[in-house]
Design a protein that fits this description.
2 copies of one chain form a homodimer.
Chain A lengths: L3 E2 L20 H10 L14 H51 L45 H8 L1 H4 L7 H4 L2 E9 L5 E8 L9 E9 L14 E6 L13 E9 L6 E9 L22 H21 L3 H6 L1 H26 L22
Antiparallel strand pairs in A: 2-3, 3-4, 4-5, 6-7
Chain lengths: 369, 369
């Protein structure tokens, strides 16, 4: 049976066509050509008689009202998410216990038959088994390097991980999400670590604040809650264990005496753990934010959202890679759509006069609803 | 202030990077190379010792439980959507009245100041004003060709519209959505027409049925409700007005006598109105569906979803083109991300051993939540 997931906005593209015959758009093209509107044909509303444009103002005012109701809808969805996060908590606790080895699953716990590669001897014929991250054998507790493996599997996360972070991330035993219902709306990611030689904190936290209110000046850009702010935490590194700093040595020559000495300087080091020290910006929305800082924050918000939304709820599927394969499949479908699209516009170039400016129209924003 | 909309899964890509330095992945690459797993590094879980793989089975069983709860969450979100559709109904009624001219908005209704192009004389200097679809002037009622303009502006819809459909679509005065809460979950699109010379139906309907249940055999592919079925309606065309049929004339030559006669044959014609006559498939899920029919249905479901989800709630913004511009902006951002991604992988080719197979990982499916 053919199906279309209503969640799958990536497929809501104009690539698929029902009718293969091209549409000459004669009538429309005529209007367009006549007035020389080379941009969006949609801009044509601007040339309607004033009496009609006045009525469009009324529709736009109604739309502002509609957006306000939409914001309430999204707030209710967020409330539902808070409620369901509680419902998942028992599952998450069990997962953590199995991963750390605190609890050994019994036969009923392991009654899962949909993945044959989890039965019998290891693939590749190595009976002992193997892990790329360190020694494992039949006596290894839990699922070793579970979260580190996820970090390495997911590009968005792996891009933050430096080789010197890996020994630290081997101690990551869980990521929990706490939802904040309102005042302000937000969520906290809690990275739980086993006792280790790097820092004393049992948990590192990253706080995200969201806003679920249309912009007064630009109400129609509203698409649901957005992350607007984040805050990290202080990591209590043990001496000489801070991977976010490095010492560089520099030779200094005395200008007049000619003597040379070596000075040590501590500088910032690339590390995943900089994730807990994001750039701080002023609360004043009108203050300009440096473009580089802006880019770091955009990326940070994206990562925080992805961890909350994809990684934590589906961790085992990122560990096995299944979730990645699905994302790839989706991407391939998207590319096929794009190909189809560009072929179409080539073929129709001579007859479809209004098409070029519209071919850019693409997938709707992914909307939480 | 930098922001990241949590709805915007299109941006949840691996294109943005926090650390610009490349990661050599030495440790990971070693494991990968050693065993010759050239595909997903994630496949490495298959070579773990059996005792550990057994625990992964336990996690997967937990994940099945998690997916079941997720399905309940989505059902509750759908319920919320039903509730909110009621809340929007007053706004939709007013919109329809302004569009048809049934009600003339008063000054308070038109108190909207965020679009200067709606005030003063028409752009292009034509004081009278102009519409590409037909004569308009100061005395024209309502907002003429409102829905036809939307159909022409949105590629996904415009691709279905043939020149002979346009005179019919000029009579489209509203699209309503009725939500069906459950048994089965679904929605109905109602296309409302003013009295016209083409058909007698005041309303044409398209019914969509959804399923909100994980597949027993493939539970992890569940991403929320999906459209699984649709049904159109019979259009009562007036004589010789059916745009979905055309008459073709064919010369037939008698084989032995050599006489020639002309026969007329009625065949299917490309038309938007074929949207109300989708291919019917068997209810038996295991029965094979023809690939062409499958493609038509996938496209149909996508269009139905798009009309419900984007067009109806934001109609005026598709009329003015603003909604299209936003979708384009998003698409451009996406392309920029892709560019960045491919540059990165080129640069790092020599050092990043495990990267190639992972660079394909892409945006998460857009998830309703």
């Amino acid at each position: 049976m053919s199906k279309f997931s209503s969640q799958d906005s990536d497929s809501s593209k104009n690539g698929s066509r029902v009718n293969s015959e091209s549409n000459t758009n004669e009538e429309y093209a005529k209007g367009d050509g006549k007035l020389g509107f080379s941009n969006h044909p949609a801009q044509l509303y601007k040339i309607l008689p004033p009496q009609i444009r006045r009525r469009i103002k009324a529709l736009k005012k109604l739309q502002v009202e509609s957006v306000r109701i939409e914001a309430e809808f999204f707030a209710e969805v967020h409330k539902l998410e808070c409620k369901y996060n509680q419902l998942y908590s028992g599952i998450y606790q069990k997962r953590r216990a199995f991963v750390t080895g605190e609890t050994e699953p019994n036969d009923q716990d392991c009654d899962f038959t949909l993945d044959a590669s989890l039965d019998g001897v290891a693939e590749g014929g190595n009976e002992q088994g193997f892990s790329p991250f360190g020694a494992v054998d039949a006596n290894t507790k839990g699922i070793p390097y579970f979260w580190l493996t996820i970090f390495k599997n997911v590009d968005l996360l792996n891009d933050m991980v430096e080789p010197h972070d890996e020994p630290v991330l081997k101690h990551l035993t869980d990521i929990e999400v706490e939802f904040l219902e309102n005042d302000p709306m937000g969520f906290v990611l809690k990275f739980v670590f086993s006792p280790n030689e790097f820092f004393s904190n049992p948990v590192l936290t990253k706080y995200y604040e969201m806003r679920c209110k249309p912009d007064e000046e630009d109400p129609f850009s509203f698409e649901g809650p957005e992350i607007i702010k984040c805050k990290g935490c202080t990591i209590d590194w043990y001496k000489n264990k801070n991977v976010t700093k490095k010492t560089v040595k520099k030779r200094q020559k005395h200008k007049t005496q000619g003597t040379v000495r070596t000075v040590s300087k501590t500088v910032k080091n690339d590390s995943f753990f900089n994730f807990f020290d994001p750039p701080q910006v002023s609360d004043d929305e009108n203050e300009d934010v440096d473009a580089e800082i802006q880019a770091i924050l955009t990326s940070d918000f994206e990562i925080g959202h992805y961890i909350r939304e994809r990684i934590v709820p589906h961790a085992v599927l990122y560990f096995t890679g299944e979730a990645l394969e699905e994302e790839e499949d989706l991407e391939e479908e998207e590319e096929e759509d794009d190909d189809e699209l560009s072929e179409d516009s080539d073929e129709n170039e001579s007859v479809v006069l209004c098409k070029d400016s519209k071919n850019n129209q693409q997938a709707p924003e992914c909307k939480q609803q």
